[in-house]
Amino acid sequence: MSLPKKKLEEYLSYVFGKSVEIMNVKRIGGGEEDIKEIGYGVPRLIEVKVEGETKKMVMSFVVPGPYGHDYMPDRAQVVLLAHQTYNKLPRHVRSFDCGGVTSDGRIISVGNVEEFFVLMEYAEGEVYKKDLDRISEEKRLKQIDIDRVLALSDYLVEIHKTKKDEPSLYVRRIRDLVGHGEGIMGLLDTYTPNPEYAIEEDLIKIEKKCVEWRWKLKKYVHRLSVVHGDYHPWNVLFRQGTDFTLLDRSRGEWGEPADDVTAMTINYIFFSVLTFGSLADPFKRLFNFFYENYLEKTGDEEILKVVPPFYAWRGSVISHPQWYPTLTPETRKKLLNFINTVLESEEFNPKEVNSYLKGS
User: What is 22-34 written as a DSSP string?
Assistant: First the structure.
């Protein structure tokens, strides 16, 4: 990371509120005598004069890598947490500020920021969930419903074509699937076990199966692809015909295509179970249209070998007693049956959904 002298002087002058002159900048550590071969940080010793007084300070950058530091926001999290906590611990070196370097060499202070936000454009349209509500009420499909399910499937066919050779990132995404706060373990931690649908031992069983699946999926690193990351009916805005816009891309640019496929298709199962108690027409037709179109155009039959833990994740969302508090115990039990049975299957069979809902 290049640190232009003038930009660095401007930044430090802002931080200290006084004129700063750079005397020397050099990297700290990493010599031959150092027994530690790797570390998370790249520290630089900076010697300056502040209104004639010589001072030394350290500026440290987090190294991109496979230890949960793959994305720039991961590394920002480390920096922000360091700045918030260093000065609260007795005898710890003080943090003056934290910030970032832009592509043109500017250094920006964010040390006083308490929260971050995203400012984005507004998109017109109606959420796809409204289509599913109408289908549930009318219990039939219109031609627009078929056109839209194919358009949604085609979209994934297109974006999943782009692959990336970065095995550690694929492994990280699978690790996050199971252990992240927004993943399976995070969701199950916020469950309220209830004898009517699941006791604590049932949730432990799901976690154990998912850990086994994490190790199975490590051999599929070649599948790393561009993904949306939260491709469900509440994040799709349709306008006229099949024209749509997406919301809330989540958890990074790269991932497993099964993530997107399961996020959408489990909702055809969900709305059907709510309406009919099983996967039945017309939702069964939507489910089949989506899968048949995707598999035919991608040729990705392998996806059926990796979808089970992703269905467990999405199933844990729709059966969640806090996220969907009005579900009947019977419906919740069917969804949890689906999770458990799918996790026990070596390969997902789209034609066996109703068997999965009944449980083993």
Answer: EEEEEE----TT-
Prior bond of 66 cis (ω within 30°): no
Of 118, 129, 154, residue with least CA distance to 289: 154
Task: Give CA–CA dist 82/97, Å, rounded.
Answer: 10
pLDDT tens, 337-356? 999 999 999 999 999 999 99
Which DSSP category does 246 fall into? E
Rounded to 5 degrees, φ, ψ at 82 are -60, -45
pLDDT digits (tens, 9 = 90+) for 219-233: 999 999 999 999 999
Question: Quick one: how far is CA 343 from the chain centroid?
Answer: 21
- Tens digit of each residue's pLDDT (9 = 90 or more) over 11-44: 999 999 999 999 999 888 755 444 444 566 778 8
Angle at 76 between CA 72 and CA 80, to 5 degrees: 175
C-beta atoms surrounding 41 within 10 Å: 16
